[in-house]
Amino acid sequence: MRHRSALSIEVPTLKERVYESKNESFCSSESELFIGTIHTVDTDNQRILVISQLQKEDLNEDYKKLVASGEYSQAIWVSKVAPSKYKQGDGIEVFYEGSDDSFPAQVTTKKINRLK
Questions:
Q1: Distance between CA 100 and CA 87 in Å, rounded?
Q2: Would the pLDDT of 7 be above 60?
Q3: Mean pLDDT over residues 106-116, rounded?
Q4: Cα maximum dimension of the chain
Q5: Which residue in 29, 46, 111, 38 sits closest to 76, CA to CA?
Q6: Is the pLDDT higher at 59 or at 21?
Q7: Which of 9, 10, 36, 84 could share a disulfide with 52, CB 3.0–4.6 Å?
Q8: Phi and psi (nearest 5°) for 77?
């Protein structure tokens, strides 16, 4: 088993983001929220892979290996984005409606916010 450090990429909790975002306009009340870190920017397919609680040391690991390892239980492919706006390691929150049953799930974003 590989040793993991306690360092992870800092991403605000959902509670913190909801508090900070009270005055922002959200999508519809049916939108779901996913908070994570961009692991892969797929420019050919105009999508990004976002993984929740991604460890810094795993940023350069092959995404297929990470998904197959079972170390991360929450990951989504976000399609129909402009990949040039995002880079690996960005913390983001994704608002979307519905997803398929695959892993990682495939979603189309309604709104994306970059986290500080």
A1: 25
A2: no
A3: 91
A4: 45
A5: 38
A6: 59
A7: 36
A8: -95, 125
Kind of pairing between the strands at 91-96 and 75-79: unpaired
Say which DSSP state 46 is in: T
69, containing H or E segment = helix 63-69
Half-sphere exposure of 24 (CA within 13 A, CB side): 10
Residue 40 is encoded by which pair of tokens?
């892969």
Give the pLDDT score at 98: 79
Query: What is the mean predicted confidence (pLDDT) over 64-92?
Result: 94
- Secondary structure E strands in 12-96: 32-42, 47-51, 75-79, 91-96
- Report the C-alpha dihedral over residues 66, 55, 61, 67, rounded to 10 degrees: 10
Per the omega criterion (within 30 degrees of 0), is the bond before 83 cis?
Answer: no
Estimate to the nearest angstrom the gap between the alpha carbon of 36 and the chain centroid: 4
